[in-house]
Specification:
Structural class: alpha+beta
Strand content: 5-15%
Shape: elongated
Number of strands: 7
Number of helices: 9
Radius of gyration: 45 Å
Order of helices and strands: EEEHEEHHEEHHHHHH
Strand order of the largest sheet: 1-2-3-5-4
CATH superfamily: Transferase(Phosphotransferase) domain 1
CATH architecture: Orthogonal Bundle
Helix content: 25-40%
């Protein structure tokens, strides 16, 4: 059964668009200027305390006050609660959590370009003192013109109660380790980890916690990826925030140095239905020792049927056979010659070629 459309002062709600971690999202229209927008309504039963809801509203107000950035979805206004309502830019496309099924590999250039654009918007927020707190594919959109946009700023880590019952477990698979403690911490380095975790899934088709962190190398799964990308990802996914890129701006610098061909065209990608990479075969997570090259064993060629060629030891046999043939021919020729002579023996008028004829003497009369 669908949720009844709420009555929000100044807005006309049209339909429910989705359910987030801490509330519902509705498509709406501003009564004043008939501008289309999305309304994020923080539910009273979302496991957020009143103080946490106020903190989220305060973060939204900060985002609304930021200078415009193409990769940050605009916040149009905040209506204090309860329930607290955040009016946002209406995205006419699905979030990537719906457009790209979980654990789906994307083409390297596509995944990298989306991450670069999101990192650019996130760097803009960090430079103005705003942290996101909950980056995951459901908070990332790619518009039809190919512009990636980040939305869903919390300004803090999701509360423990929200993690327990505020949404599917997959939504929380991109949280940094320090967000899963009894006293969660949220900093720019936290956002770096979450964005890298999203990029890791798009590159490998796996999540960073699938293998217990044994093989966070993206090249362990896709050897064709550049080493520079592998190094940047390892640093961004460090379990210790002090070892990561301190903010999104520095992570973006590292991503910009990665060269991948062919260049990505996100507008074409969206128009094609956000296709996955052609090869969806995912390798197993390997321990670091498995990444060490193993000496190759001697290769054994398959047996082939070839014509036997006599070698030198067989040469005498060939000579013996030839001699026997010659002797046989000589015997046959000799036998033929003898037969010819015998056949011609009865005729004296004929002369054997090459033999001088002997004259016959007439017998003498006796006296």
């Amino acid at each position: 059964m669908s949720t009844p459309l709420p009555e929000i002062p100044g807005y006309k709600t049209i339909r429910e668009m989705g359910r987030g971690v801490c509330g519902l999202v509705f498509a709406a229209e501003s009564i004043a200027d008939r501008t289309s927008c999305a309304l994020r309504v923080l539910q009273a039963d979302s496991k957020y305390s009143h103080g946490e809801a106020e903190a989220i509203a305060a973060c939204a107000s900060k985002v609304a006050a930021l200078p415009s950035h193409p990769n940050v979805a605009r916040i149009l206004g905040v209506i204090p609660g309860p329930p607290t309502v955040i009016a946002m830019e209406l995205m006419m496309v699905q979030p990537l959590s719906a457009a790209v099924p979980p654990t789906t590999r994307l083409r390297g250039p596509i995944a990298l370009e989306i991450a670069r654009q999101v990192a650019s918007g996130l760097a803009h927020a960090h430079q103005n003192g705003v942290v996101h707190g909950h980056i995951h594919p459901g908070n990332i959109y790619v518009a039809k013109d190919g512009t990636a946009k980040l939305t869903g700023f919390l300004g803090q880590s999701p509360s423990a109660g929200c993690r327990e019952s505020g949404g599917p477990a997959s939504v929380f698979a991109f949280l940094a380790p320090e967000q899963l403690t009894s006293e969660p911490i949220c900093s720019p380095a936290t956002d770096v980890y979450s964005l890298a975790a999203v990029l890791y899934e798009w590159l490998t088709g796996r999540r960073v916690n699938d293998g217990g962190g044994a093989a966070l190398s993206v090249r362990a799964h896709r050897a064709e990826l550049p080493a520079s990308l592998d190094l940047a990802m390892r640093r961004a996914l460090s379990s210790d925030p002090a070892h990561r890129f301190p903010n999104a701006a520095e992570f973006l610098v590292a991503l910009e140095k990665v060269g991948m061909e062919p260049p990505a065209n996100l507008a074409d990608w969206v128009a094609a239905g956000c296709p996955a990479a052609e090869n969806q075969v995912v390798t197993l997570n390997l321990p670091e020792s498995a990444l060490t090259p193993i000496p190759e064993s001697p290769r054994v060629r398959p047996q082939e049927t070839v014509e036997e060629v006599p070698t030198k030891p067989n040469a005498p046999r060939r000579g013996i056979g030839t001699a026997l043939v010659v002797i046989l021919l000589m015997v046959l020729l000799t036998a033929a010659a003898v037969a010819w002579i015998l056949w011609q023996g009865g005729s004296s008028a004929k002369v054997i070629p090459g033999v001088r004829a002997i004259p016959q003497l007439a017998p003498k009369n006796s006296p």
